[in-house]
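User: For my dataset I need records formatted as: sequence, then structure tokens, nothing else. Please produce one.
Assistant:
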Amino acid sequence: MKNSFDDDGQPKRTGTLLTATSHIITAVIGSGVLSLAWALAQLGWIAGPIALMAISIITLYSSSLLTDCYRSPDPVTGRRNYTYMEAVKANLGGIKYKLCGFAQYGFFVAASIAYTITASTSLAAIKRSNCFHKIGHNHPEKCHEKSYPFIIVFAVIEIILSQIPNFHKLSWLSIVAAIMSFAYSLIGLGLAAGKIAGGGNDVITTLTGVRVGVEVATNAQKIFRVFQAIGNIASAYFYSTVLIEIQDTLKSSPPENRVMKKASTIGVLITTVFYMLCGTIGYAAFGNNAPGNFLTGFGVYEPFWLIDIGNACIVLHLVGAYQVFCQPLFAYVEQWCSNSWPQNKLISKADADGVSTMFKLVWRTLFVIITSLVSMIFPFFNDMMGLIGAATFWPMGVYFPVEMYLVQSKTQRFSTKWIWLKLLSWACCLVSIVAGIGSIQGLISSLTKYEPFS
């Protein structure tokens, strides 16, 4: 029937403000929230909240620019761009299109690794808290848990869920995952507030964060940690890589860009409130010795059952977030292979997407297995989150949205708006550079003293 299809001939999209907001919250409030207490411990009470607010505002502004690039050349009546890469190709073309693909899909791979590490850490924390509850807190060595068996458990779950046909079928999973993100954030806040109320003389917070000669040995270490903390905050807000894909699930009326701007505003505002609470209350609870994952830092405290529920919610959330980021990658690789080898029966077959079900099963399973193996070998949560933020915050979150907006809006060179947007882009480029330096140094430091599978 004619009414069953959109203007591009595709089946009618059914996404709404609710589903788009759920996708955004699922993508944004992920493992990044868990490192915010640690990030504030590096930056202190002044720079920490300022960095959180600044990156929040930048994220919301750049997202607003990006929503107008879903259709080209007109943001309401133009031709649809189904992916971020297609939007870049339509507006910028050439080498920038290829660089965008490298950055976007590289981010998806890195995010899947980071989420696997985080989920396995939370599963291990559940077993550890149960162990402490059973035998007491006097023998911590008896409750040490290796993370790699839990990586295998998470991988099995993702192998099954990876067979979901495409991004449009993820709405139910995103809504569940978004609810889980609220649940574990609230539990973490409650536990942190309880820890603060319980008092203790061992918690020290400062205006400038960790102190040289006390929590860190040298000025260089302090600087590198500050850089890494900025990367962690940037990665915590990041969802630009899937914004166009989320927008492509929306109904065409009202206009997709209008709905997406509302969804982005709601999602980022909710995220900022949670992040500010989790970061500041988490820092107040743990002080300058805040753990990289503030919820697993409660592993030796009671009530153990509440800690277990919080960590279980993290796992359930990351199960959904993994798919939100990986489904666009799955679709791209499958379509590319189908176009490259159209006569290959193993790859191309007449199903809904023109891709063999067997090929999907094999390729998606191999992807989950490979990313899980990498997670076992390099389980460095903070370093990984900082590196992801550094590598993608500027190009995907600021540079491409700004450049596409300037082209689509035909903004005159050297006008006030042009100069402002260019200055914003280069300032964010500097943020990415310093964050990358800090994360690489942290990764090198972690590698020098780590034994795989230990």
